[in-house]
Write a structure and sequence with these properties.
Layout: E1 4-7, E2 10-13, E3 18-24, E4 32-39, E5 46-51, E6 58-60, E7 68-73, E8 78-83, E9 92-100, H1 105-110, E10 115-116, E11 120-125
Parallel strand pairs: 2-11
Antiparallel strand pairs: 1-3, 3-8, 4-5, 4-9, 5-6, 7-8, 9-10, 9-11
């Protein structure tokens, strides 16, 4: 069983960059598609981005495409979210998520996934 721990959140200004990290325990990290969700205050959790097991395919929400980049290092059991050109509307708790098996985008969009981290808060001031 993989456990997920996020880090890297904080307070930044609009236009700044921030990199989130998600450390995964366990020996089967490369068997999991990985991704990030976020939940802003008073809003539902939403899909941000995902990456397939080998890292060759990535998916992004329209709201972050071109500004955020997901990448993974299977040798280190890590997945990262590079966030550039941050906006106040990016303020949220960001959650790392994982799901084993073949990537199913519909499951990721629905948040119907096996594993979740505890979240890290990103606050973007204007």
């Amino acid at each position: 069983q993989v456990q997920l721990v996020e880090s890297g959140g904080g307070l930044v200004q609009a236009g700044d960059s921030l990199r989130l990290s998600c450390a995964a325990s366990g020996r089967t990290f490369s068997s999991y598609a990985m991704g990030w969700f976020r939940q802003a205050p008073g809003k539902e959790r939403e899909f941000v981005t995902a990456i397939t097991r080998g890292g060759s395919v990535t998916y992004y929400a329209d709201s972050v495409r071109g500004r955020f980049t997901i990448f993974r290092d299977n040798a280190k059991n890590m997945v990262y979210l590079q966030m550039n050109s941050l906006k106040p509307e990016d303020t949220a708790v960001y959650y790392c998520a994982a799901d084993s098996g073949t990537y199913q985008h519909i499951s990721w969009l629905a948040g119907n996934l096996a594993l979740w981290g505890q979240g890290t808060l990103v606050t973007v001031s204007s």
